[in-house]
Write a structure and sequence with these properties.
The structure is a homohexamer.
Chain A: E1 3-4, H1 13-22, H2 24-30, E2 42-43, E3 50-59, H3 65-73, E4 78-84, H4 95-103, E5 108-115, H5 118-124, E6 128-133, E7 145-146, E8 150-152, E9 155-157, E10 162-166, E11 169-173, H6 178-200, H7 205-208, H8 212-218, E12 221-222
Parallel strand pairs in A: 3-4, 4-5, 5-6
Antiparallel strand pairs in A: 2-6, 3-7, 3-10, 8-9, 10-11
Helix pairs in contact in A: 1-6, 2-6
Amino acid sequence: MPVVVQNIARADPAVIEGLAAAGVATVHEAQGRKGCMASHMRPIWAGAQVAGSAITISAPPGDNWMLHVAIEQLRAGDILVLAPTSPCNNGYFGDLLATSAMARGCRGLVIEAGVRDIRDLTKMGFPVWSKAVSAQGTVKETLGDVNLPIVCAGQVVNPGDIIVADDDGVCVVARDEAATVLAAANKRLAAEEAKRARLAAGELGLDIYGMRGRLAEKGLKYV
Amino acid sequence: MPVVVQNIARADPAVIEGLAAAGVATVHEAQGRKGCMASHMRPIWAGAQVAGSAITISAPPGDNWMLHVAIEQLRAGDILVLAPTSPCNNGYFGDLLATSAMARGCRGLVIEAGVRDIRDLTKMGFPVWSKAVSAQGTVKETLGDVNLPIVCAGQVVNPGDIIVADDDGVCVVARDEAATVLAAANKRLAAEEAKRARLAAGELGLDIYGMRGRLAEKGLKYV
Amino acid sequence: MPVVVQNIARADPAVIEGLAAAGVATVHEAQGRKGCMASHMRPIWAGAQVAGSAITISAPPGDNWMLHVAIEQLRAGDILVLAPTSPCNNGYFGDLLATSAMARGCRGLVIEAGVRDIRDLTKMGFPVWSKAVSAQGTVKETLGDVNLPIVCAGQVVNPGDIIVADDDGVCVVARDEAATVLAAANKRLAAEEAKRARLAAGELGLDIYGMRGRLAEKGLKYV
Amino acid sequence: MPVVVQNIARADPAVIEGLAAAGVATVHEAQGRKGCMASHMRPIWAGAQVAGSAITISAPPGDNWMLHVAIEQLRAGDILVLAPTSPCNNGYFGDLLATSAMARGCRGLVIEAGVRDIRDLTKMGFPVWSKAVSAQGTVKETLGDVNLPIVCAGQVVNPGDIIVADDDGVCVVARDEAATVLAAANKRLAAEEAKRARLAAGELGLDIYGMRGRLAEKGLKYV
Amino acid sequence: MPVVVQNIARADPAVIEGLAAAGVATVHEAQGRKGCMASHMRPIWAGAQVAGSAITISAPPGDNWMLHVAIEQLRAGDILVLAPTSPCNNGYFGDLLATSAMARGCRGLVIEAGVRDIRDLTKMGFPVWSKAVSAQGTVKETLGDVNLPIVCAGQVVNPGDIIVADDDGVCVVARDEAATVLAAANKRLAAEEAKRARLAAGELGLDIYGMRGRLAEKGLKYV
Amino acid sequence: MPVVVQNIARADPAVIEGLAAAGVATVHEAQGRKGCMASHMRPIWAGAQVAGSAITISAPPGDNWMLHVAIEQLRAGDILVLAPTSPCNNGYFGDLLATSAMARGCRGLVIEAGVRDIRDLTKMGFPVWSKAVSAQGTVKETLGDVNLPIVCAGQVVNPGDIIVADDDGVCVVARDEAATVLAAANKRLAAEEAKRARLAAGELGLDIYGMRGRLAEKGLKYV
């Protein structure tokens, strides 16, 4: 029953690049406020902002065997996404796996479990978003799946979906919605630019967004 | 019933500045070991040390409308303090709201919920202490209150109370106790200076504080 | 009943230095995947990598008296390890205690509770691994024990055991196993070096470790 | 500085009885959706539904001395409410203290910490709402306060406020709002009775509350 | 964009009944160890064992409007399944909604949020599996979706999937796998019956399952 | 390296029986306030009160193989105690294993992980104290140890130590201290009996324990 799906569809690299530039918060809003993984998914170092195609991994607790299998499926621009089949903090991934993944063009790892060799990964510039940092080791005894749909930190991830990740966390964009979402994100960014200038000049959001009438209607009292 | 209190009393700016310089741990001790918010309130970037007058916000889960309302109430030197009416991690606040708040002289945000646009806020030097980092968006549908007393991370905050915040977390000082607390804090800092020199020279706290007698009395055995 | 054990055995300083250089993940694997403290033990600043002999402290919740007692027992190269007798986040330790500990050659603190004065400790270069950052103060009313065996963050720590700590967390090595563990760690590091080069060159772990046969045997299907 | 306030005002016993009968959810709604303690406050046995005047206790972590002090302040119909000064799970209260409290007419205990002797308390019919069950013992070394305002599980409790507690948790009603809240609660109960009959007969809330128009206006699509 | 899908496919009632009889643990194993919701989903009263077709609800934090909408979509034998769009403990559901749902043949509620009126729901025999018990009220301001796929407590739930729930928690069975899973579950139950008798007679699992050889091979030593 | 220790020493059955009768809170106090497992260890059904000799199990996350091995080591009056090598909620144990364990005279299970088949275990009267209830299944691939010392829920458990468990949780008594602890527990129970009567008659703890002087000395003010 355990399966590795080898040839998955990926989104247009230019779209992926655009989503990376827009960042998590903008992309999340642009696609109708969906796709954010749970807030316990934190970067191991600050400042990374990436997007890539998801190679999905379902792995048993405390067993990192399928990471080795998944790395063979990586193409340049991909991001590994691992969800354990039950909650687990073990350190599934460290500097050797990162070396291997980087050699194949991998842009990062999203893992709802633990990661280790933090100092090395930071030096290598390999970004990871994880639920925990832990040196606790794993075994290689039980199979899982590569490139089947998974649920990671509360979000469905299909293989080939676009993962956008930065200091705000991780957001998933469905592959077939990527271009539309990018367009909406760019529109949003442009609109924000104008607003930012007005806000910086001291104008109030209450006025820019015309909120005063509706606040009064709802019954807000100033005393 | 939702209310915005417009003119709140604030403490003497010189006192507020003094409390900022003393920092959270010293202020907390100086006022009799009270006022510390829960330890899940963490800074989004390291190194900020501020104090300011609290503009308090009570907001529904997942609704950041009242932040827009509160920003109008800001005066230079204020700090926004938001408590949701039930536990929530959503990202209520990002770079646009920060731009607006900074334009009005706001010194920071304390929020028992989520915040986003971490990278921008860090670049802008706008400090935030929050329970979570999350890009999950909010709506603007339900009213709350501005400048009523709230409970934030286990502490009562009255509008105009002094918020002291640094890498150790957040401490609240009642407005009418601020001057007394500052005096006690400064006394404490002076006393610590002398002790620090003796400790650095290798003298033991057991001797400096004269603890040996009481330890023996309580029954401590050396073997 | 409360006791301070004064003369504890320590491991060979050269072995301790070797373990520090190997780091937490390698040491943990080298001793058969044991000894890792729970992943909630996090460094207050990034980049420290130390090892030292454990001075163990059992302290009541909210009472840091025994830290003063323990500091007298420190010798150069030691690490303080404190476990509260019930879960507690209070800030047991700050810059004054750190000044005193450093004056006696202490290399760091491991505490399953809170710590404060983060900014000062960072400037001083004193490393701490803790469960929380909190300015909440403590009292000095109730005795505990120094240099009896404790359980800290899920691991037994005997006085004189070697504590290895870095950005991945904290690992405990039994004193009488230290030399053996170091030998195994060094062997492991050497082996990893060769593998790292091959992985960096694009070779797959599946091939280097000869995993393909066993994966097929277990029933992994490629589709 | 530690203080025991001896003579506190209490609400009208008939009002308190009415609030007990209304229960937590109704009272919470009737007072404008406020006053609910955090949902980690759970009853140790199911089925109790009580209301009483709060005797408030602020106690250090792991120290139950002030419970003995507070019991002297109890009058028939009171409820003990304890908040530790920092998070703590120790078992502050057991069957002996319950025996003493019951002898003085106490109706229950609300404690944001631990409780023990669960089986005995259940047999005695003494209700407790707590954050934890734990046999971990406490000391009697450090003072706290009785009958000063506290924050317990996210809510301000003033001495003499009315505590309403049942299987849904705990709600606080300000003493001077008690009569008004009771009136609103009773009105609400009456209104619910009529709705319950219509809903039981199969009528839809969508129709009873006239929601269809507003749902359509907001843009809800049926497909 | 918010949508209500009105006519969803449901599984064969006889299959659903069979899955209810098999229970969560057996069904989970029978379908290849998948489908279990996170262990924080707990029943509000012990002893219920049900299965039904999922009516799925995606709702904003603190807003229960879509529950009213979903109830209209219920048919006899259905189970309501609600996931908030961000973590929330509010009490979305109480006795009035339960009255309405029961009037339409609803078999229970699965909600990764809070529920209230526990005592009434228990008396009514309406089973709920939830993340929290909380009286904290909700508003009716923001739309969500009914009968779109959701992620609830770590599992994807499609409308019409079969929800199996008992004291062990909640398991999801894909609608088109339901018959196959039931067959496997029944086979498993039959096999367990025989084993149970042998185990009760004192025979060891080591012998019944023939584990001794493989244990020795893996290197287990008896000393 | 994985090991099963076959012949462990056990305490006197009469002493074990006495400790069961005394219960967790009394035993914990009688041995100097130590030995309590963390408060997340909860009984799956209320009312059990047992003591027995520990058969200890160290098992990998998500792998219950060693439970089968451990059951062979059980003698009448033993209690199984399992700690996973990293945090795990999987359901390691259910009704078949319970049937087998009961057939060998096992008195219960203490497991810092998950358990399933709650309803069956309750009917069988087999008591379990666990960290979670979960139907999530396990594999049988990786070895662990039986009857080596473990750390379970914060406490060291040596094989043959006495486990005392009731509705308050779980306490560990070292085998060679068992008789002394029982004597102290019985003395404590006798002393409590007298105090209970006085407290029930309305006498205050303040007077019975003579606390008034020390409270005044410490500075408690009555206002």
